[in-house]
Design goal:
single chain, 254 residues, Rossmann fold, 8-stranded mixed beta sheet, 11 strands, 28% helix, polyamine biosynthesis, Spermidine synthase, SAM-dependent_MTases_sf
Length: 254
């Protein structure tokens, strides 16, 4: 998993745009790398990012605040802000680009670090190898794209095996992929090698083409009635469109 070191000069510039009530993050291109509603900065604006919270369907709602969320790739901080402010979870972020952290603090309402939140400026591939993180993460969100947003930066079976090692027994990983890209099947195969195909669930692509895949540390198949009850609870508690997810969220292995 060794990779060429990234110098600060090689990291993209970070910029901000606004359209109506929404503020967007850009990494040197017009591609939107994250968004925030100005009138509700701790809600999740983008549909695919909302879907990265699908791990909530696999845990008891009352236990959520006791869990640990880790985000690889800060973006506009939507997942970390939601987990910290709405779910009251302990949160860790691993981000390579210090400019992204600075812009999130200044423009996207990322709370200051404290006992329940920490931003680690590091290469995710290296940071997740540290023993301190192993077996500690209940909800791992992986959204690692470069400024061209063409394919995931880290996408090997070895990388996903390291992600699996971070998870608790009930832990889940959610990954943002481009479902209409040629790289999608390759990414899915890498995840299946690390987690087992029975542990994988996937959404249909959004209109923009983002496909969120969920991988469980331990594969389970909740009954439809149980998933429906969990989805209703998630929607009622945290205003995520969880009941709609069930129409487009299925196990990869049938």
């Amino acid at each position: 998993m060794a990779r060429k070191k990234t110098a600060a000069a090689d990291l993209p510039e970070v910029s901000v745009s606004e359209y109506g009530n929404v503020r967007n993050l850009h990494l040197g291109t017009p591609w939107i790398q994250g968004s925030m509603r100005l009138d509700d900065p701790f809600a999740i604006e983008l549909e695919y990012v909302q879907r990265m919270m699908a791990w909530l369907l696999f845990v008891e709602p009352a236990s959520v605040a006791k869990r640990h969320a880790m985000q690889l790739g800060l973006g506009a901080g939507a997942i970390t802000k939601f987990c910290r402010k709405k779910l009251r979870m302990c949160c860790t972020v691993v981000e390579l680009n210090p400019r992204v952290e600075a812009v999130c603090r200044a423009w996207f309402k990322l709370p200051p670090d404290g006992p329940l939140q920490r931003v680690v400026l590091a290469d995710a591939a290296e940071e997740i190898q540290k023993p301190e993180w192993l077996g500690t993460v209940d909800a791992l969100a992986v959204d690692l794209y470069d400024h061209e947003a063409a394919a995931p930066v880290l996408d090997s079976a070895e990388f996903y095996a390291s992600c699996r090692a971070l998870l608790t027994e009930e832990g889940c990983m959610t990954v943002n992929l481009f479902g209409r890209s040629a790289s999608y099947e390759r990414s899915l195969a890498s995840m299946a090698q690390a987690f087992g195909e029975e542990a994988l669930w996937a959404f249909k692509p959004t209109r923009e083409g983002n496909t969120v895949v969920l991988a469980q540390r331990q594969a389970t198949r909740p009954k439809p009635a149980e998933l429906r009850a969990r989805a209703e609870a998630v929607q009622a508690r945290w205003e995520l469109p969880a009941t709609k997810w069930l129409r487009v969220f299925k196990p990869v292995a049938r």
